[in-house]
Protein 1
Amino acid sequence: MKVITANFVTCAVKECKTSAASFPLHFHDAELEQQELDFQPEFIRNVLPRVDWDSLRITANELGFPSLPETKPEGDALNEEQTLKDLHRLLLETQVIEGKLVCGNCGHQPWMLPPSETPNHVFNAVRGGSKKKEKKRA
Amino acid sequence: MEYLVRLAQCHETFRQPELQAVATLLGIELETMAYNEFALTEALQTPFCVVKLKDEAAARALISRSILAKDILELWGQGTTYEELHADVHQRTKDRWADYHLVTYALAVDCFAGKRSTAKKREIFESFDYLNLKGEVRIKNPDEQFTVVEDYVSDVEANAIGTERSSEPRMIYMGRWLAKSPRDIILTHTLKKRKYISTTSMDAELSLVTANMALAAPGKVFFDPFVGAGSFLVAASHFGALTMGSDIDPRAFRGKDHERKDGMAMLQNFKQYNIVSQFLDAFTSDVTNTPLRDTALLDGIICDPPYGVREGLRVLGTRDGKVIEPVVIDGVPAH
């Protein structure tokens, strides 16, 4: 799971969504992997306004990244290549390949250990079984 | 300037919307001058569309993203008969003929739903003598390719609505060939050659058209809530968008053990097309309980919602609305 995705998702439980504690989800025992990807400055510029900066700082902190500036880079700062490259490295190139992702409100872990690289938001969303599909034979 | 777009003869009803979408995406002003004047129903559209664009650069840009178009020509003239056509060529381009005196060139006659004998084609070529092309004729890689396009009444149309077929075309266009579309990528994107697919993978051509219509472009974020084997994501990523997907059934994108080399199986497709950098993430979620934050995060959502027998409806929750107590093993929820 990439850091940018962590910034996009909250706990899927409906009751949690209204609580401020459900976002950001917190990483525990995270194991990181760096992956080299093409640098796409236009993407960083486009996506940065949608990133929740305070949460990104918390996540970066939990993952052991050097602390980010207090305010989101804006205006001229977005033309500095180094700033964009740093963000690219954090948002896109950093992947959490193992660990727990915990909701601060309900304490549930939408991410199971370690069967997948992908967080699983389904099972605790309503904590119910899935509707069986009706079998119809044509 | 007017240009003739030759469209692929498939997915007829999507062709013009796609052209329009590409124009919107690239900021090109596009005015359709003539399209489908003869056909009475949508299924009987002819593959020729005359559009008005600012300049040649706009024409080349427009065709560079259109999947349902084949190529684009600078329109030098049109008419229902050769007399009309020649008159129109004179009127539109007389002052430009001098520019083409010395180029190497080729002439071609291209008939839709009709044919011409070699002798007749030669006669048509010779009727354009007045263009005064003095350069060398070169069939392969000429500097300029001039094409006469003839549109006949097709047998499909004759059978469907009874239009009378004739040995003469009902519309003739003459143009200078500019560029072809990237339609060939369908051949590399085809599901037959794709590394990881599932029962409901979307056809390569339709995925690309969908991504075009949703205005996928570099720097944008695209999302597919029913990602499956990721056929829509591959298409949007092909056009430079960064994509993420979710599915209620993670087995679809994760793949079986033997299908996963490193990471999820879906990633194989991104590797195959060399667009790994355009892939963000895939996660398991129910779209009716999506974990995505409730703000504007995405530039586009493209998806093929589940229906039918192969992939039926599945949502979270119980039919009677009862909440099931979570199973806890050793104090840890077992989910």
Protein 2
Amino acid sequence: MPLDQTFVGRTWPPTETYLVGREKIREFARAIGATDAEYHDPEAARALGYPDVVAPPTFPVAITMSASRQVIGDPALGLDYSRVVHGDQRFAYTRPVVAGDALVCVNSVDEITTRGGHWFITTRTEVRTEAGEPVVTVWSKLVQRGEENA
Amino acid sequence: MADVSEPQTFRVTRADLVRYAGASGDFNPIHWSDRVATGVGLPGVIAHGMFTMALVGRAVTAWAGAPDAVKEFSVRFARPVPVPDTDEGTEVVVTATVKEVTEDGDTKLALTATCHGDKVLSLAQALVRKR
């Protein structure tokens, strides 16, 4: 199914605030085997200059993946999620996410292309604090595989 | 600082994928159900791409010395990482190589991740702040 190209260039209203919990960061760090103290111990994190435990670099997807459903879950886009694979992933950090952050996500669609029966959509999510301070920009390219390759 | 990191080997089992699914909120059944995975043409359950990227991220932060030294981090998922339902699971081997030092003094790292000798990522790189 073709994707609706009019989604390109659109920006969605900010998502509901995501409050970053200390235990969520610890759980994520444990799940990826990141044992350094700054991911688990607030005192150790403060000693290194962070306000609280710090999240590993890929942690923001735990927030943006659900936030981007605003875009990719819109039936008007026409994405068949059962045929979707992850193509590319990119992060540009202003600073790492830390426990206690109250974050909102602003989603946009940068690009929709098609090649060889496959469709490619790149979403960009600006992750900011409620006060508007930029934290990280997250790009995800999803591939909807063509029927013959499904 | 070494120009090339020692290759790091990460063991990946089904239990790791279950734990990552819970921690990340990515419950796509291709990461825990062989029935669903084979039904969509995969060889079986595969690792979350973001789990592989997280393992590479560990190598990057270890090289950088601190998580806040990472300015940019990007990958392309080139091949799936099948994870058999065995105690051993599979292995992902990660390397980081200094590609260039920018005019600002930041370091660009070229990253690789392989599984059974096959590259599972392409165009994987990170930009690490000057210390």
